Amino acid sequence: MDKDLAFLKVQTKLGYDFSGDIKIGGKYSSLIEHNGLVFISGQIPRVGDIVHVYGKVGLDVDVSQAQLAAKISTMRALAILKQHYATLNVIEKVLQMNVFVHSTAAFIQQSEVSDGASEILYEILGCETGQHTRTSVSVYQLPKNASVEINFVFAIKA
């Protein structure tokens, strides 16, 4: 399966363009590679200058909107990889994904929100490469009032 083609199909289906610069908000790197591992810093559901899903999940945002936020955040991470390596076909395995959900104290569906991100990984990378470990937690606030932030660890082919 060509992961780059799958990325473009998902991008079209979602209706967002991830080909532009991926902006960061400080003095850090969005990608660091070390010994065959690639660490992607936390990604929020921002495309260009616009955060597309913001507010507290369970109050301002429902589960399906939060899943969209997780999908956009995941697409941003994959776009960073694609821009850095010129292809997603270098990905050997998704090792870890940590999902932070800006939610109310009563909201308990963080895992269901994370499913949006997992779906994107499986759809683009396939079941074997896209299978990953995952942590889903509720947080009080996220940058730019985003509803979701996700960071990743990938293994890259030698």
From TrEMBL:
InterPro entries: Endoribo_LPSP/chorism_mut-like (IPR013813), RutC-like_sf (IPR035959). It holds the Pfam family YjgF_endoribonc. Residues 37-147 form the Endoribonuclease L-PSP/chorismate mutase-like domain. It comes from the Bacteria. Coiled coil: none annotated. This is RidA family protein. It comes from Acinetobacter guerrae.
